[in-house]
Automatic annotation (TrEMBL):
Boundaries of every Aminotransferase class V domain copy: 144-338
Pathway annotation: Amino-acid biosynthesis; L-serine biosynthesis; L-serine from 3-phospho-D-glycerate: step 2/3
Purpose: Catalyzes the reversible conversion of 3-phosphohydroxypyruvate to phosphoserine and of 3-hydroxy-2-oxo-4-phosphonooxybutanoate to phosphohydroxythreonine.
The protein's Enzyme Commission number: 2.6.1.52
Protein name per its UniProtKB record: phosphoserine transaminase
Family assignment from sequence similarity: Belongs to the class-V pyridoxal-phosphate-dependent aminotransferase family. SerC subfamily.
Alphabetic keyword roster: Amino-acid biosynthesis, Aminotransferase, Cytoplasm, Pyridoxal phosphate, Pyridoxine biosynthesis, Serine biosynthesis, Transferase
One MF annotation (Gene Ontology) recorded for this entry: alanine-glyoxylate transaminase activity
Residue ranges of the region described as Disordered: 1-20
Catalytic activity annotation: 4-(phosphooxy)-L-threonine + 2-oxoglutarate = (R)-3-hydroxy-2-oxo-4-phosphooxybutanoate + L-glutamate; O-phospho-L-serine + 2-oxoglutarate = 3-phosphooxypyruvate + L-glutamate
Claim: Cytoplasm is one of the keywords in the record: yes
Keyword Cytoplasm: yes
Length: 379
């Protein structure tokens, strides 16, 4: 116990500021309650659950303003599983990767260790900024993250110049960027994410927005992999074509967590009712701006990402002065009901990391800054 008692009047109404899993709204929990017993505990192959998947596959195209021919696919395993799906189904031979944090590095590592792919071209920088892949001869896929969750860095999403001449795919890890950052989906071929960030659900599911080119590539690779003597193996669980065909039937290949589907469907409806992607991104930007202004004016805190153009409006990282222990601040905040503002463990910095996804109230973000100031003053 920290023995620091923050005055009740200063506390945010909701103290959840995690970078994933994130805050779940009360209305989403009510949707779960309403789904018992008609959905929860029933078969995912029957109409009550399939109607929820259908609702998701209608709501997400509206939210992202999908171009003609783009499709929504869902599958089991979370976005980490999609790294392996991309290796098995989307990258034909060689990828070029932008690496600027833990999760971009993990995807690049998956590509590097795939025995049927060439070593990827790696374009890397130190955590705290981004590095996009550059035009690479013989590359058929360009891969990076819209938002690097580990560092609070947001990167632009646009096709690499010259990649169209290669018929190369643009594959974007959008796990903590989707729904919180602006995006022109036409600049991507696979924009994939998990629902436990901006979409306020639980983990265990991946969602991908697929272009016609990505769909064609997946079918071509799977057909080639089935030929006698083919070097590539696509495990059934990682088959993108199977996931897509099941999605078209409004189901997933394997049994999903029904609660995740219900929570996400409710959130997508809520976001569309509020004004869609534009509303969501403007709200996240407002919350992030509160934190960046506070950190810039603070005597003991500063934004970790020094380049304003690279600062995320989904996940905000703030360095603390050496005289202020992040562990002490975190303990005091948690004792007062403010949780999950700890830094990414592998980054190893004296730092706070704050999720400002659409469900988070900007007024609560302002209250958080005042609570941090109070704690530091009383340490």
């Amino acid at each position: 116990m920290s023995n620091i008692q923050i005055p009740q009047s200063m506390l945010p109404e909701d103290g959840r500021f995690g970078s994933g899993p994130t805050k779940i709204r009360e209305a989403q929990m009510q949707a779960l309650n309403d789904a018992f017993p008609s959905v929860i505990g029933t078969s995912h192959r029957q109409s009550p659950v399939k109607l929820i998947v259908a609702s998701l596959r209608e709501g997400l195209p509206q939210f992202f303003s999908l171009p003609d021919g783009y499709e929504i696919a869902l599958g089991n395993g979370g976005a980490s599983a999609f790294w392996e799906i991309a290796c098995a189904n989307l990258i034909s031979r060689k990828a070029a990767c932008g690496v600027y944090g833990s999760f971009t590095k993990k995807f690049a590592k998956s590509i590097e260790t795939a025995p049927f792919l060439e070593k990827p071209a790696i374009f890397e920088c130190e955590p705290g900024d981004y590095r996009l892949p550059e035009f690479t001869e013989y590359a058929d896929s360009y891969c990076w993250a819209h938002n690097e969750t580990s560092t609070g860095v947001a990167a632009p999403v646009q096709r690499v110049e010259g990649s169209e001449r290669q018929n190369a795919l643009t594959i974007i890890d959008a796990t903590s960027g989707a729904g919180a950052l602006p995006i022109d989906i036409s600049q991507t071929d696979a924009y994939y994410f998990s629902p436990q960030k901006a979409f306020g659900a639980e983990g265990g599911l991946w969602v991908s927005v697929l272009s016609p080119a990505a769909i064609e590539r997946a079918y071509h690779i799977e057909e080639s992999a089935s030929l006698p003597g083919a070097a590539r193996w696509i495990p059934p669980f990682l088959s993108l074509t199977s996931a897509l065909e099941n999605s078209r039937k409004n189901q997933t290949l394997n049994t999903p967590a029904l609660a995740t589907l219900i929570l996400m469907d409710n959130q997508v409806k809520y976001l569309n009712e509020q004004g869609g992607l534009q509303w969501a991104t403007e709200r996240c930007k407002r919350s992030a701006s509160i934190l960046y202004r506070w950190a810039e004016q603070s005597e003991y805190a500063s934004p970790f990402v020094t380049n304003p153009e690279a600062r995320s409006n989904a996940v905000v990282t703030v360095d603390l002065d050496e005289s202020v222990s992040d562990n002490a601040v975190l303990a005091a905040l948690r004792d007062n009901g403010i949780v999950d503002v700890n830094s990414y463990r592998k980054l190893g910095r004296n730092q706070l990391r704050i999720g400002v996804f659409p469900s988070v109230e900007p007024s609560d973000v302002r209250a958080l800054t005042e609570c941090i100031d109070y704690v530091v003053e009383h340490l």
